[in-house]
Amino acid sequence: MHAKYAISIAVLLLFFAFHPPFINAAREIRTHTIPIHEAQEFLGDPHLNKVYFYTSAVFVHKSGKVFLSSTPDGTGPINFSHAIRIEGSYPSSGSFQYVPACGQHEIPPIEITQFISKAHFSDQIRLNIRYSREWCNLTRIENGKTVSYANVGPLYLVYFEDIYDAPDPFLRLPWDYEKYGLDALEAMMNINSYFDHEYPLLSVGWQIPEPHEVNDSLVNYKSNN
Fold this sequence. Notes:
The chain has helices spanning 3-18, 184-188, and strands spanning 26-37, 40-43, 51-60, 65-69, 78-81, 83-88, 95-98, 104-107, 110-111, 124-132, 138-142, 145-152, 155-165. By secondary structure, it is mainly beta.
């Protein structure tokens, strides 16, 4: 058998071993909820700062849509005075500012998935939330003095992660491809132009290097060195 046909057959066999036909992975949507802050009121003396409240949250995001909501299920409207600004810090760089007008506002839950991007070396994302008044003021009398005030409702970060419960493969590769950040299919589909039957998943040399003690030998499809 010619070497190129042996390669094709081997790849197909490995593919179906790890992805058996007619077996579908079960899909589950898992809800994660992170409290960001409780309902609060802020009083000026007599005026509030332009940014009257600032907070942040760090969370792990791997997949799925992300929302800001006043309830843990992601469906509650958001309440705040004047303006809200949302920023995704490194590696995310998106930002969103909602400045409808001066006063108290209630808006639907905000989807912020577009502000989120995965880090190269970590799944952790930092999100910054700023509430500001710009040039706006809500005022009332406190102890005989006119003061500025602002209110924010409770806020939760809610994301819906897609979980796929894939069936266990009936064959497992003996090579430590996960050490190099690859899954089984990625390792299988990156075979070099030559095919070593002792270590057939060399891929590109820097991805899954061959053990040093055997890197001067090549076992072909006839089992000859």
